[in-house]
């Protein structure tokens, strides 16, 4: 039985978050648990979510107060703590400074780790890929602790403990993975392999204020008062998706892939939730990005085909568009999918949906929230939304 700590914390106040996290560690085994997690002399890398350069305290990224509370506790077990990430299009250092994480790091002697330098490595017994280019920092750290935000995600439905490590792939190389793996099922398997390469050891999920709707960048803040902690990334994510309204955790691609591959603990009956209960912490009106049901047809090929045919489309909210062209810059397929036309006196993007791979990088990285997702008629007909 895998254990996760489900905790209640309503404010981004460092002392209160630290108190809550210490309660969580006590539930998981206290000092002896932490000494096992972080053996003496270990280097520890913290992997926050720094999706983009946004204002301090933004729901898009890991909150600086959560980061500080984690650093305070882990500083009692390691004198060698670093942190880093690799946003898809923007400079990590600028993102870290803008977010407030860099200021915290400097006060506590935490080193900034640039994820631009990659190492080539090999994964034995992969689900999909044996050879990888991974940021040197997380690959060489003794202990990797991921600090994700609880958010919706247009392609993967939800982003949390497993998905957060996609930032361990240096910058522009992320686009290559989207081109190579345009469907959510294959992308999910890749994420599991990635976490095996990085050897992510522990997750602390920031859901004090989560993001619903048009996530992972342009959704709506949602007060959830939640922190979830655990060694099993899939158990943490399974607990989180139940809180936001997924009755069947296997509806979420990464959890479905993990269960099929016996990669981590996924099913609720195999997870012991310590602290608060799912029922008392569940959000009854959380707006999901994709409220899909599990699709299972006679053959994997047919299942994949129907999944592709029912995937939503990225669409433009024209009045919000500023014509910055970041959608095309973010698109792995570039002009093959997104071109620009003049309409109502301004230049706006237009999608060639026959070439679109539905990775939703355009939607994810639009700075103005001008791109949303729209369900297809077939999806509505099949009751998959």
Automatic annotation (TrEMBL):
Coiled coil: none annotated. InterPro entries: 4Fe4S_Fe-S-bd, 4Fe4S_Fe_S_CS, DUF362, PSI_iron-sulfur_center. Residues 312-341, 347-376 form the 4Fe-4S ferredoxin-type domain. It holds the Pfam family Fer4_7. The keyword Iron applies. It comes from the Bacteria. The keyword Iron applies. Signal peptide: none annotated. One of its GO terms (molecular function) is metal ion binding. Keywords: 4Fe-4S, Iron, Iron-sulfur, Metal-binding, Oxidoreductase. Ferredoxins are iron-sulfur proteins that transfer electrons in a wide variety of metabolic reactions. This is Ferredoxin. It comes from Ruminiclostridium hungatei (Clostridium hungatei). The lineage of its organism: Bacteria, Bacillati, Bacillota, Clostridia, Eubacteriales.
